[in-house]
Amino acid sequence: MDPLVKQLRELLAEQTEPYQRKMKAKHSRLKKRVIGHGGQKAGSPYSEKPSMKRSKSAPPIGEHMNEGIFDKLKKSIGVAPQGSDRYNQIGNTNIYVGEQPIMGSKFMMGVVDRFDKVYLVAEETIKQLTPQELETQKGKVISCPTHDTSTPTKDQLQNMEQIAQSIANEPDNAFILVACKAGMNRSAAIAARALVLKEGITAVQDDQQKKK
Fold first, then answer.
1. Are 120 and 126 in contact (CB under 8 A)?
2. Cβ(91)–Cβ(207) under 8 Å?
3. How far apart are alpha carbons 172 and 68 in whole angstroms?
């Protein structure tokens, strides 16, 4: 791997590590303890009380940027989404599987924002969402309704094959989430098929050998 790319990977990943999130969470409380408990009333030249929010003058790299340079860097060098028990990476690929990123009838934006594309493959999951909610993520969230069955019909298998082909055709540096209701059956089967289409059966066998 190119040394510069490796350094950028480490630098970008550092900004979302648990320590950084922890520091950001308690920043306002610590700032208030340092400058927010004085007894002096506001007056000239300090006519306004200081903000207890984190300053924007010197944030961690990329925090002040709008979507653009920072996001392009993440995509170009492949900074993976933060892992969790809900969303599992398939081998060393950029394909993840998991349960529906939905709370009630709304998208869980903390999850959806981690990925470049989200394939919703459970029919019952898609029915939870209103057309308006789906429209908010048009182009990013792909609705691909499939039935949950242990004995799929030929038509259902063909539908799953088409979804897998779409996923396999996504760019190699795009992070993809394949989500069904529980993240166990349909999403895993479709993701596995997409991986075979994308990398071939040899790559899958090699990955299984490494795990052994």
1. yes
2. yes
3. 19
Residue 149 binned pLDDT confidence (cut-offs 50, 70, 90): confident
Nearest Cα neighbor of 81 from 73, 89, 70 is 89
Domains and CATH numbers, the chain: 3-77 (no CATH), 87-211 (3.90.190.10)
Rounded to whole angstroms, the maximal C-alpha distance in the chain is 78
List the one residue out of 74, 72, 93, 75 whose CA is nearest residue 173. Answer: 75
Token couple for 126? 């898609």
- 8 A C-beta contact, residue 35 and residue 48: no
Taking the whole predicted model, whether its pTM rises above 0.90 is answered as: no
pLDDT digits (tens, 9 = 90+) for 16-45: 555 666 777 777 778 777 777 666 666 666
